[in-house]
Structures are given as C-alpha cells and as structure tokens.
Amino acid sequence: MSAFLSRRSFSLGLAAMAAAPHMAQAHNYDPSDVPPPTLETLKWAQKTRASLQALMVAHGQYSAHYDHKKRPYIVFDWDETAIVGNVQLTLFHYMLEHFAFLLPAHEFQKLLHSHGAEKLLPLPFTTQDGKRLSLHTLVQDILEDYRALAARYGHRPHPLPRDELQQDPTVLAFKARMAFYHHALTALHGGEIAQRWLVSLAAGHTLTDVVAMSRAANEWYLGQAIGTIKWACPPERAGVGGPVSATITQALRLTPEISDLFQIMQEHGIDPVICTASLEECTAIFATSTEYGYNIPREHVFGARLEEHHKTLLPLEAANVPFPYEQGKTALIKKYMVSKREGPPLAIIAGEDSTADLIKTFADTPLCCLINRKQSDAMMPFLKEAAEMRTLDTPRLVLQGRDENTGEWLPTEASIFLGDTMAQLPS
C-alpha cells in the first residue's frame, strides 16, 4: 500500500476513535461525526484540487442534501487521464512486437480500410526515400508481411520471446507498415475510425487471451523508458510500395493523484465511473486493480466491446452498445448512468481526444477537469477556455498539468510536452 493511503487510513482511524463515544450514543451513523476526507496535495494544481474538494464536500454524504438512493457520480476518461498513456495503443504495439494476430489473411484483409485506395497518400506519408505511395500499395505490402509471418510462426497470441522476433526483418517491416497505416488512417479518416480499427484487431482471440495480453503489455511498458521510437522497414523488405517508417510514442505510467481521488470520492459517497474508447475488459483489469491502486468497482467501467461467437471475439462492435467515442460516449453514459441515477454526472475528468460531446451535452455539470495535453480539434476550445478561467473563483473548467517526459503530474495548470523543457498552457 502506498504511503499516502496508509497515512489516510491511520488518520481516519484516529478520527473514528475520537468520535467513538459520541457515535455509541447515536442510533444512526452521522457523517458529521468525522471531518470530511480530503485529497492529498501530491502534484495537483492548487485550484484544480480545491475545486474537486469543494465539489465533493458540497454534494457528497457529508452535505445536508445528500440522497444515497441517487448517489452522485463523476465520469472519468481512462487513457491519458487515470493513466499516462493509452491502453489500446499499448496493446497494439505489444501485438505487433509479438505478432499476436489470429485471423486468417483473408479475414485480416477485411480490417484494412481501402477508401480512396488508389490515390496517393498526402504528405508527409511517404516512403523513407520520399516517394509517394497509395493506400492500396501499402495494404498489399502489409498483407504480404502478414502471410509470411503467419506461415513462419502460426497464429498464437505471442509464440516467441520479443527479443527473438525483433531479429526478423519481416516482423520489423510489418510493425513499421502497421504503425504507418494507423497514422495515415487517423489523418485521412479521423480519430474515431482509427480507434474502431485498433479495437477490431483483437478479433480472433478469446476475451481471456486479450486480457492476458493486455496485462503483459501493461507490465512491459510500465517498466520501459518514456520516449519516441522509430520503426522502419529493413531494405530487404522494401515491398512494392517501398520501405516506410513510423515513429511511435512509448509511454505508460500510473497516476497516484487519480487513485487518491477515486478513494476519497467513494469515502464521500460519490461513484467514479470510467468511460473510455479503449476495450472495456483491457481497461477493467487496470481500473479494478488493487495492485495499481485504482480499485474501481467492475460495474463502473465502460468501454468498447466486440461481439463474440463461441467465446471468440469477432471484428464486429457489440450490438446495442454505443461505441464510446464523442456522441457514442455521451449515449453510453445516458444509457447506463443518467437513466439509472436520474441525473447528469457531477463532474467530468477528461484527457482522451473523444470527450468534447460529453462536456458539451452535460452543460449543467458544475465541474470539468481537463488534462493539459495536445488533443483533438474538438477538445482544444475547452482546454483554451479552461486556461482563461484560471482567474475565476469558481471556474467550471479547470486544468491539470503534467510532465510528459517523466509521466508525472505537475502542481500547476501548465504542462511540459514530450520532448520539450518549458511548461505551456493551451493556446
């Protein structure tokens, strides 16, 4: 158990002992018998921490109007919020490095988008020597690598140690082309299409296998340095389109400020609810873990889901479950939380690129805490507005800064972005 959790448990224990004679005389527990739990200072921006603390005191079980039948709740993103990094991207990179794909080549081909395939990709999507290539040509080279690797290693989650696979030129080429394809897909068709594609790559596995891979991926990347890595096709695997390269970001870290917030919220009688565009089960193993310090109830974790057939995941999104990206994220919260709790979220804590619609739709939600990072065009206006509200006594939008080079938060609204040294506010 972390030091700050231990200190809290000890202090609350002393408070309970001091209040014991009074409580023994009462027929029912009165929350006013002990002081409201408070957030640890840690590396919170001062006003952000104060705003969250005031919100919990005003609406939690220590307030006079608290209704336990309609427990308030706060909606959290998971990626780039409760953690530094992205669960789905982490799994994607792990699967590439271990060639952990189970679909036959003809089924895998169906996952590769070909909209406008014959057209040359826009700049800067060129080969290593600066030549233009089409999406069609890139897909053909990806499939050639896929078939060769499937023939060599078979279809298993991760059949060989990572270090052995990294000596294989075909593995190196496949990694580079797939990462290149993901970047191009995002640029051409937007973040939602790219996220749906990432999720679909789990098809062919059982959910148990995906969870096991995700856990292994988390353990590996938590132990790696934060930074960028360039993946490149070796000359001998140039393919028809030519050798490409892609730069990926390697970053995965825990956020003790959020784990502390989760605990304090629940002590106030307020439920933390996760709503993320990553696979639900891959997020849940992180979010529900006592080992990592988050310890969220499983029923409060919502994310992307795939259909299953005989326990095998299909490349089809689950029916009647909104895909949690922008309007889909809002629809999911309305379906599973608003309708049951008869009210909107008490606050929104956001760091994913896909939460703008949630913030806009629930305009009556009194507080939105935004992680200061480079986000989608839809999110940037809210980040800029939060920066402008810093001088207000009771802002609706607040910022939280972090140092992306270390994976730690900063006690300010400004952030140091990856590769930079100076803290910046949204502009």
DSSP strand (E) fraction? 5-15%
The Cα radius of gyration reads 23 Å
Number of helices: 14
Count structural domains: 2
User: What is the number of beta strands?
Assistant: 14
Mean pLDDT: 92
State the helical fraction: 40-55%
**Which overall shape is indicated by the principal axes computed on the Cα atoms?**
globular
Low-confidence stretches: 1-27
Note the run of SSEs as H and E: HHEEHHHHHHHEEEHEHEEEHEHEHEEE
CATH T-level topology of the largest domain? Rossmann fold
CATH superfamily of the largest domain: HAD superfamily/HAD-like
Q: What's the CATH class label of the largest domain?
A: Alpha Beta
Q: Largest beta sheet, briefly?
A: 6 strands, parallel
Termini separation: 39 Å
Query: In which order are the strands of the major sheet placed?
Result: 7-6-1-10-11-12
Q: Give the helix/strand class.
A: alpha/beta
CATH architecture term of the largest domain? 3-Layer(aba) Sandwich
Please outline what is shown here.
This protein is of the alpha/beta class. It contains 14 helices and 14 strands.
Question: Topology, please?
Answer:
Layout: H1 3-25, H2 46-59, E1 73-76, E2 83-85, H3 87-98, H4 105-110, H5 135-153, H6 162-165, H7 169-189, H8 191-200, H9 207-222, E3 227-232, E4 245-250, E5 252-254, H10 256-267, E6 271-279, H11 280-287, E7 301-304, E8 306-309, E9 312-317, H12 327-341, E10 347-350, H13 356-361, E11 367-371, H14 380-388, E12 397-400, E13 402-403, E14 408-409
